[in-house]
Amino acid sequence: MESFFVAVNAVIPFFCYIAFGYVMKLKGVVKEDFLQKLNRMVFQVMYPFMTFYNIYKADADSLPRPILLIYGGVSILVVEVLLVLIVPRIIKENPRRGVIIQAIYRSNFVLFGLPLTISVFGDSAASVAAMMVTVVITIYNTTSVVILEMFNGDGKSDFKTIAINVAKNPLLQGAVTGLAFFLLGIRVPKSLLTPIAAFADMTSPLALFVLGGTLHFNAIRKNLKYLAPVLTIKLVFLPAVIVAIAYALGLRELELFLLIAIYATPVAAASYPMAQNMGGDGELAGQFVVISTVASVVTLFLWIFFMKSVALI
Fold this sequence. Notes:
The protein is mainly alpha-helical. The protein has a single domain, classed as Na+/H+ antiporter like fold (Up-down Bundle), CATH 1.20.1530.20. The protein has helices at residues 2-26, 32-56, 66-90, 94-105, 109-121, 126-150, 159-168, 170-184, 190-213, 224-248, 254-263, 271-277, 282-309.
């Protein structure tokens, strides 16, 4: 039951943000055209603050074992390459291809994985988890932009167009700036860092509020043929394969659990505004976020229960 409540406590805030947006739209407090404009602002202004701050605040003295950093990063890249090769052979609609690829490999590691890891292993695990965030988020923010540009709405982007759009992407600009500050040891004055941190903290709640306000439940049924198989792969099969390989490589306990936190947590909230603003199927992307958040209450509990039962953690 303790594991169950850990998962529930990680998920409930997400439902509150989504439900708040949905109720505000039903009551007429906000209109959908306003929410679409707010969605663009979140993507172009708020997410760069979050990506910058998440990388900037990492603790360089709390490095995990190199094998974990290497395996975590390389495994994400390998999964992405396989998905880019396989998904277009199955899915015909270009706007859905990038959204489905992103839904399978990209998770809410920061907002779910960190509190979940600390709840299971205690505060001593926070620094190792935070360093993994730096690696994972940098890869996510870079490759997700490339993948969505590859499979944008018109399907006509060439390499030059993709490269230009990637360089102009607000999330990547925030991540690169944060990484530069981190590597060069540039310190931001507290008077500026405080509002940056506040904007970073606002980002996901605001994005989920917008998601709730633009959610159309009657559209979920027509997308079930995508939602069910993709989320089964994302929350069950892919984490099982990743953990099995990691165990064979000698990773144990906290290291194995961090991989669960990377791969088995819900679809990243950032995937919704990115899809909306980059020619992807925004409606399907939003449904992946919501349904995976609901399903993860059960799947994360089962993962924690299973790993404790077989003494993996």
